[in-house]
Amino acid sequence: MKPIIYLASLALFLSACGDKQKPTDDAATTNNNSIVILTDAQFKNAAITTGKIEQKDISSVLKLNGQIDVPPQNMVSISVPLGGYLKSTKLLPGMHVNQGEAIATVEDQQYIQLQQDYLTAKARIGYLENEYKRQKDLNQSKAASDKVFQQAEADYHTQLVLITSLAQKLQLAGINVRNINESSIARSVNIYSPINGFVSKVNVNIGKYVSPTEVLFELVNPTDIHLALKVYEKDLDKLYIGQKVISYTNNNPEKKHEGEILLIGRDLSTDRNTAVHCHFEDYDKSLVPGTFMNAEVQVKNIKAAAIPTEALVEFEGKQYLYKVIGKNSYEMTEVNTGETENGYTQILNPSSNLNNATLVIKGAYSLLMMMKNKADE
């Protein structure tokens, strides 16, 4: 029985020794999964070239967003200075209107009364003027007292003020005083568009009484639309008046709209941002107020730490460089990247160790593939 137990123990020992003698792979990694070590043959096949981080002129692009806006002088709120009932209108949101076009009709009995008062005052002015002149002549000849003359003079000038005041009220209401007389008194007035543009809002319906403070319609002249961008405090020093801007919509990103910075806000919101207004070089009818836009601003060249773009590899959504740590030995190091220009990519805030390190600038992808193959085994 003992020989059998002995033979079994010997067999297990030899089997264990056989497992330990399995050949190792040609390329080995340490316990640190970010390090890869190549054999001489692998190094030759990988065609690795090394270099260091360089200082390069990199033009960065500042990406912003905002929306189409209209300056206050191109937005008009239409109201009725004296109020009244809306008799008619054909306006609908989106309709185009021309300057001077009648866009609504309002009627009210006060317009009749206003014209009556004006015509009555105008009819009486002749009598008062003649009475004033007559009393003036009598006063000069001492045939009338100063008091009577002064009363006639006051009545005449008071009537002139009344006529002028009523005429201004009629003009404010939209009634031309030259078109009214005792046989032609209108009970309604027309409202005219002060600009060429589009109807953005209609706030009333026919038959409704509107007060002088109520806005009936809102009109927009879109020919001077501009782009209002939101810019945070940290990026304000990169912008200047006249700087070129390229913008595009989310729905049609291929269509670029060129413009330039017209005005930079001087106050910050609670979110530490301000508005930067940009003027479009060409008017595009497809851009309507309120449209959200993306924009890119080319900022000045800066001296930046940069590496050839092919030295970077992407792994699990992050960017890495391979740093030489010994003969045929490389360590994968995560980096934050910035702008790319002329084959070089900016490295943001590189550490001092990385600045002075020898890096793989060609063949980095081969190293990544070897590491991935190791991880899959």
UniProtKB/TrEMBL annotation:
PANTHER family: CATION EFFLUX SYSTEM PROTEIN CUSB, SLR6042 PROTEIN
Database matches in SUPFAM superfamilies: HlyD-like secretion proteins
Keyword Glycoprotein on entry: no
Cell inner membrane found in the keyword field: no
Protein name: Efflux RND transporter periplasmic adaptor subunit
Family recorded in the similarity comment: Belongs to the membrane fusion protein (MFP) (TC 8.A.1) family.
UniProt keywords, alphabetically: Transport
Gene3D superfamilies (UniProt xref): 2.40.30.170, 2.40.420.20, 2.40.50.100, Helix hairpin bin
